[in-house]
Design a protein that fits this description.
Layout lengths: L27 E4 L5 E5 L6 E5 L5 E5 L11 E5 L32 E3 L1
Length: 114
């Protein structure tokens, strides 16, 4: 369950250097005004993983809780947000829920390249 706390993330030359402290409050959730592409640069390998999500309003970036030794980061495009601690769990109370009329469909795409 999320808390409704926004904070500014300071970048170093347009980059966020990941460490376990970045995730001290759990996942990072970036809104669409932060951009539509996230790149993860492997510091040892030099490889780049790029996730492009033009149809998604949010992207979640997370790893295992800091109590575990971990070596991965998950990058997930999200079309809406999970439950917030201060809101109810009814669909009408959720932030970012997408509504489609009867018979309507919607296609959301993202791409991953390495």
């Amino acid at each position: 369950m999320m808390i409704n706390t926004k904070r500014k993330i300071e970048l170093d030359n347009g980059r966020l250097y990941l460490n376990m402290g970045v995730f001290k409050d759990d996942a990072l959730v970036l809104e669409d005004d932060a951009g539509k592409t996230v790149e993860l640069h492997g510091p040892k390998t030099g490889r780049i993983l790029s996730v492009h999500f033009p149809d998604f309003k949010y992207v979640g970036i997370w790893t295992k809780p800091v109590t575990y030794d971990t070596n991965y980061v998950c990058i997930e495009p999200w079309s809406s947000l999970p439950d917030f601690a201060h809101l109810g769990t009814e669909l009408t109370e959720k932030i970012g829920v997408r509504k489609l009329g009867a018979g309507q469909t919607e296609k959301l795409e993202f791409s991953i390249s390495i």
